[in-house]
Amino acid sequence: MRELWEVWRLLISAFLLTLCVSPVSAVVDLKPATSPQGYVARLLINEAPFPGESGYVSEADTRAAMEAILMTLHARSVTLPIPYTREQVADTNSTNILDVITAGGERGQVDGFYRNKSGQLAMVPRIEDRINYLMGIAGQGKPGRFSRLLDYAITISNEYFDGELHLTDRFGSLARVGSIAVTGGSYSWMTNRPKFHPGGYFVKIPNSDDGVLGGNRFFTLKKID
Q: DSSP of 80-107, one letter per residue?
């Protein structure tokens, strides 16, 4: 009887040990794409590189890119420098960040993010496909880089709409780019390729001022009277 009890004790101990060491799957709480928080979170995820993708440098760099993109959208929506108009910079006169994102349609201000014929927030299929892929990786095993980056995009998007985001534009104090006087702040971003430029009064923020984050080049505005 004592031997039988000892066997059961060992089996129970082994089972409890497996519970202690088994990996805990990451849970990423991404709100629906129809919600402002979920829509903007998807934009931040889509526009920033994840491990193994082109442009990825580090978690810190991808987080910085997400922050800079959100601050750029905020600037285009709310804090345009005088005498620029919102139509000049963002192709809309709306101060709603969702209207700024979707201005111009499917290939408009933010490629792939638009409103459908019913005026609802929409994305092209490739964006949701990539996000589902990243969510699938994040959900395998213990929380790691993928889940941390997804969570960060979700967190800052939620905080933005809750009025609890405490970020500053990292380019806000920029006064000159070479011989050009600029307004400071970021008002556009594009994939970091020499041929990509938004044109007009946009000025490329140089590498020396951290103008490239997450494989994206950020642009400020030329100072005008």
A: PPTT--HHHHHSS----HHHHHHTTSTT
pLDDT of 26 reads 53
Q: Which DSSP state fits 81? A: P
Angle of helix 36-47 relative to helix 59-77, nearest 10 degrees, comes to 130
The CA distance from 79 to 184, in Å, is 11
Buried b (16+ CB within 10 A) or exposed e, 155-184: ebbbebeeeebeeebbbeebeebeeeebbb
Q: What are phi and psi of 204, to 5 degrees?
A: -65, 125
CB 177 within 8 A of CB 203: yes
Please count the other Cβ atoms lying within 10 Å of the Cβ belonging to residue 29: 11
Rg (CA), the chain: 22
**Residue 31: is its pLDDT beyond 90?**
yes
* Residue with the two structure tokens 């702040």: 185
Give the position of tokens 């044109």.
199
Q: Are strands 216-221 and 202-204 parallel, antiparallel or unpaired?
A: antiparallel
User: Buried b vs exposed e over 85-115: b needs ≥16 C-beta within 10 Å?
Assistant: ebeebbebeeeebbbbbbbeeeebbbebbbb
Does the structure show a pLDDT above 50 at 95? yes
Work out the pLDDT band at 89, boundaries 50, 70, 90: very high
Element (H, E) at 118: none
Residue 148 is predicted with a pLDDT of 95
Query: How much is the average pLDDT of 136-157?
Result: 90
